[in-house]
Design brief:
single chain; alpha/beta; Rossmann fold; nine-stranded mixed β-sheet; four-stranded antiparallel β-sheet; 28% helix
Length: 353
């Protein structure tokens, strides 16, 4: 079994490729980036200059000391979004507006610089290398016409791998999509679980030749309130196409990408050079031990436009204790099991520029 390519990618990013990567190397790198991020936001962000008043990056002696800082909430983003910005508006390449039609609240707006989007493209390219190889064709069942949308970023990442990514958009007519898959000789599908399932369950799905679909990447739709992928959907896709089905975890606040399964397909390897993850008790806010379920807390390490410090995702998961069968030193996060509160929507379907 091939080791996750994220290990060498992270080793390169933190300067440990030649020495071999160890968990301590990752934590030391993350500590340094956390210290830099704290200094950066206190200086550049009106929101964090107030929220973190009296706190110095020097107070962060280990990554565990991050727990001393207050949380950032989705409501903070809704109510004070512009105050999170650390750069001028002219440096913003992409603005994503997340509107919850069921809530009478301000929308959340996330801003990304060109450099921020490049980091996501880089992650997508390395994460997808476990799933497809040069010469293959990927049908991206996600929005993509807009520059910097998730479909556009994925297509650009695939191009770097010598893979053709076709941004298709959401499935509106499963029969038409099936015919397009056959005509274009598609090898891999990337999309929201229920939409990919609608293709597999269609009566004409049998017109897709046996063995044509070699892999599927499921990226859950958090507009459904939880990025949880039912095992029954994975089993049905495997049964229909006899293919490998991978899961991806990411929300817009992460820059779309947060973690992806390796060939072992038993937990997410995380984007740990760009993001720092905690698991805490949802009520007390205290850290959970490895193996215990709690709320996923996100801190960005390399973002310039709108960094986030200890952002409450509302998603419940755990760090897995056992090493991954692929042999990596990277830790694993279990699949998201539930959502503490309604974090909808995060889906690209709900985007507006």
């Amino acid at each position: 079994m091939r080791k996750t390519p994220l290990e060498n990618w992270i080793a390169d990013k933190i300067g440990q490729r030649s020495n071999g990567l160890a968990e301590n190397d990752i934590r030391q790198y993350q500590l340094e980036r956390l210290q830099e991020t704290i200094e950066y936001v206190v200086l550049k962000s009106p929101f964090y200059s107030r929220r973190l008043r009296g706190f110095s990056a020097k107070d962060l002696r280990t990554v565990d000391d991050l727990a001393l800082l207050p949380f950032t909430t989705p409501r903070d983003l809704r109510d004070k979004g512009p105050q999170f910005l650390c750069v001028s508006q002219s440096e913003i390449e992409r603005v994503v507006t997340l509107i919850d039609p069921c809530a009478n609240e301000h929308p959340k707006r996330l801003c990304f610089t060109r450099e921020d989007l490049e980091l996501t493209i880089d992650f997508f390219a390395h994460g997808m290398s476990s799933i497809v190889k040069s010469g293959q064709k990927v049908l991206i069942l996600m929005p993509g016409p807009k520059l910097g949308s998730v479909g556009d970023l994925l297509a650009r990442a695939l191009k770097r791998m010598g893979v053709e990514g076709i941004v298709y958009g959401f499935v509106k007519d499963p029969l038409k999509t099936i015919r397009d898959i056959v005509r274009e000789k598609i090898d891999c599908l990337v999309g929201i679980p229920i939409q990919v399932l609608s293709i597999a369950k269609h009566s004409e799905a049998k017109t897709i030749a046996a063995g044509q679909i070699k892999s599927v990447l499921l990226s859950p739709d958090a507009c459904l309130k939880s990025p949880y992928v039912p095992a029954a959907i994975v089993s049905e896709l495997q049964r229909t196409w006899n293919c490998s089905v991978f899961n991806h975890y990411g929300i817009t606040e992460m820059g779309f990408g947060g973690g992806v399964e390796c060939q072992a397909r038993c937990g997410f390897h995380l984007r740990e050079a760009d993001l720092y993850f905690e698991i805490v008790d949802s009520d007390s806010g205290l850290p959970m031990r490895p193996g215990e379920f709690g709320e996923i807390i996100l801190t960005t390490l390399t973002r310039k436009g709108m960094p986030l410090i200890r952002y409450r995702t509302g998603h419940l998961a755990r760090f897995l204790v056992e090493p991954c069968p692929c042999g990596t030193v990277l830790r694993r996060m279990d699949k998201v099991q539930d959502t503490k509160y309604d974090t909808a929507p995060h889906s690209a379907e709900c985007e507006a520029v």
